[in-house]
Amino acid sequence: MESLLELHPLTSLQNIITKMGWYTGKSQLLITYEGAFEGFYGKASEDWEQQATVELKEVSGTNGQIICPGIKVKGLPYESVEDVARKVVKLYEKWVADSN
Fold first, then answer.
1. pTM given for the model
2. Is 67 helix (H, G, I), strand (E, B) or coil?
């Protein structure tokens, strides 16, 4: 059976943000999806590039301790938003494991 991360990496990121506890400031999950297209003489010649970037902004607790690290992953061309989000969740989980 696949884990929640494998099935819904964006939901996993949303859960990280909503279950942080007490903190100062604001939490942010930023998703950027950029695309470009080349045309040739009024006709589309090729799909140039699609690229996703997923970023969790650093969040500090009320005592100043970091409770969410700043993580930014720019995906490979044509990599899906879900695949890039999955990488961010895995980096966050590694940070949590290394912090304990």
1. 0.81
2. strand
